Amino acid sequence: MMSFKELSGFELLERIELRGEDAHSWVAIVADSALAPDAVEEFATEIQAQSDENTNVRVVPIEGLLLNDIRDKVQSPSNDAVILLGFEGRSKEFWASLDVNRSALERPGALFLWLSRSALSDLCRHAPNIRSYIGPSIFAFTGTKGALTVDARERRLKELAEKFHMSNSEIIRRAEEKKIEPEPEFVEWLLLLRRSDLV
User: Fold this and answer.
1) For 102-115, how does the pLDDT look when each residue is reduced to its tens digit (9 = 90+)?
2) Which is nearest to 5 in space by CA: 198, 150, 195, 199?
3) Assigned domain for 198 exists
């Protein structure tokens, strides 16, 4: 079973390249809001530095844009790597439209969806086809300082367990039985437990 990974831009690029040039790679990057906006530029720079010199990396803000506008930006050109950001607070209707028209965004170049935990929750709830298409490619970007320390992870897991009066095994069981909503804190909990397959 695929586990949730915290990866650098370089490690993500390696995974994309292993899929082959013709792969339509969609990757969800979950970043703590405290890292933004510098983290997006840091991530783009890291991807660019490790890419072939002919590959460009674009950061495309989509706040307030409709699907047609997003499609135009993503497809012009279509062979570079694009990081889409600005998914926070989008409506259920926006996600449903994106979900139904997913093929409009398919392209040869990699597509990174830069998401907060809340936006990932919205994607899981309102865009099941996109969630399925992304599959296990949900990763955390933690900045130059790297992944959470073991102690920090354990502290946060303990906080969540105390807040919701549930153990780690119970949240996993409930997720397996589809008895929890994809709320941001539940998403975070499962990601910390390396169970993105249940998000």
Assistant:
1) 999 999 888 999 99
2) 195
3) no
Token output for 159: 């906080």
Structural domain contains residue 170: yes
Residue 34 sits in the same domain as residue 94: yes
Which pLDDT tens digit goes with each residue over 7-59?
665 566 555 555 555 455 788 988 876 455 677 887 887 777 666 666 788 99
Q: Is residue 92 part of a domain?
A: yes
Domain match, 141 and 154 both: no
Q: What is the pLDDT of residue 127?
A: 95
DSSP secondary structure letter of residue 59: E
Same domain, 116 and 167: no
Look at the alpha carbons of 104, 5, 34, 128 in this order and tell me if their dihedral is positive or negative: positive
Q: Please give the single-letter amino acid code of residue 121.
A: S
CA distance 66 to 71: 9
Read out DSSP for 97-135? HHHHTGGGG--SS-EEEEE-HHHHHHHHHH-HHHHHHHT
Whether 121 and 184 have beta carbons less than 8 Å apart is answered as yes
Residue 195 has pLDDT above 90, yes or no: no
Domain annotation covers residue 199: no
Name the residue range of residue 166's domain.
Answer: 148-192
Look at residue 24 in the predicted model and tell me its pLDDT. Answer: 53
